[in-house]
Amino acid sequence: MKYILMMNATKASFDMYAKWSKEDLQRNVAFMRAFSKELKDSGEFVATEGLGWPNEAKLVSAGKNGEAITDGVFPESKEFLAGYWIIDVESPEQAYKIAARASQAPGPGGKPANMPIEVRRVLSGHADLGL
Amino acid sequence: MKYILLMTGTRAGVDTYRAWNKNDIDTHIAGLKNLVERLRESGEYIADQALTGPEEAKVVRGQKKDMPITDGIFPESKEFLLGYWIVDVSIPERAYAIAAQLSTMPGPGGVPTNMPIEVRQFASHPLKLS
């Protein structure tokens, strides 16, 4: 079963993260690298990506003639996807366990950040949509 | 430049979609498949993925006694990721144009949904800091 683990954060949280000390950031990055390696070693790793920052985000909808209408203004409460992991596991419980590990990535002073991680099962095809 | 195009919706939005008639859903899915096919032909396609519905969603925050702390209650306004497309394009405008095509996918009665699509660039390094 494939799951996507998503880190979501508001613009304010991104700004806070950018202000972490170099040491705190390095510790966090080292954790993330080790975490990905563990998932690769266990054979549960499928993919991981980090996204660009919210100030580059655009919302696109189609205009009358199908042209792209872009908007870059979002409410302050908007949760932006910061990054994700896709894993292949035997059970939802294993996905939650791995998410808990990600959630405990070290924050300022090396304390676990306990960041919320959204866990969603991905579909193998549109036929699975439950329609 | 790699971009991820995110389609999101609230629980209410998902319920509305599920109430579409079969013909509308088939037309919608055929449109999406056709777009993916064109992206493959142009060499811009990297990946696409649909997610299961919000009812299965959980948030995990840390753990207690080696057990993950999970929560499945979300505010009604919560925007759930429904699916995404990853494309590799030469300019941001091309990513916006593809997002606009996703936005014009047919809805009920074949009328474009004009659904907003969030366009985000990948960080060139997974943990790159601005």
Class computed from helices, strands and strand pairing of chain A? alpha+beta
What oligomeric state is this?
heterodimer
Order of helices and strands of chain A: EHHEEEEHE
Largest interface: which pair? A-B, 57 and 53 residues
Biggest sheet of chain A: strands, sense, closure?
4 strands, antiparallel
Give the second-level CATH assignment, the architecture of chain A: 2-Layer Sandwich
**Would you count the extended β strands of chain B for me?**
6
Strand adjacency order, main sheet of chain B: 2-5-1-6
Beta-strand residue fraction of chain B = 25-35%
Q: Determine the fraction of residues in helical runs of chain B and give it as a percent range.
A: 25-40%
> Termini separation of chain A (Å)?
20 Å
Mean pLDDT of chain B: 94
User: What low-confidence regions of chain B span 5 or more consecutive residues with pLDDT below 50?
Assistant: none
| SSE series of chain B | EHHEEEEHE
The end-to-end distance of chain B, rounded to whole angstroms, is 17 Å
Task: Briefly say what this structure is.
The complex is a heterodimer of chains A (131) and B (130). In chain A, 31% of the residues lie in helices and 28% in strands.
What's the SSE blueprint?
The complex is a heterodimer of chains A (131) and B (130).
Chain A: E1 2-9, H1 11-18, H2 22-41, E2 45-50, E3 58-62, E4 68-71, E5 80-88, H3 92-103, E6 117-121
Antiparallel strand pairs in A: 1-5, 1-6, 2-5, 3-4
Chain B: E1 2-9, H1 11-18, H2 22-42, E2 45-50, E3 58-64, E4 67-71, E5 80-88, H3 92-103, E6 117-121
Antiparallel strand pairs in B: 1-5, 1-6, 2-5, 3-4
Tell me about this structure.
The complex is a heterodimer of chains A (131) and B (130). Chain A is an alpha+beta fold and 131 residues long. Chain A has a single domain (2-124), classed as 2-Layer Sandwich (Alpha-Beta Plaits), CATH 3.30.70. Chain A has helices spanning 11-18, 22-41, 92-103, and strands at residues 2-9, 45-50, 58-62, 68-71, 80-88, 117-121. In chain A, the strands form two sheets. A four-stranded antiparallel sheet of chain A has the order 2-5-1-6. In chain A, strands 3-4 form a two-stranded antiparallel ribbon. The longest helix of chain A has 20 residues, at 22-41. Chain A starts with a strand and ends in a 10-residue tail after the last strand. With 130 residues, chain B is an alpha+beta fold. Chain B has one domain: Alpha-Beta Plaits (2-Layer Sandwich). In chain B, 32% of the residues lie in helices and 31% in strands. In chain B, the strands form two sheets. Chain B has a four-stranded antiparallel sheet with strand order 2-5-1-6. A two-stranded antiparallel ribbon of chain B has the order 3-4. The longest helix of chain B is centred in the N-terminal third of the chain and has 21 residues, at 22-42. The two termini of chain B are 17 Å apart. At the A-B interface, helix 2, strand 2, strand 3, strand 4 and strand 5 of A face strand 1, helix 2, strand 3, strand 4 and helix 3 of B.
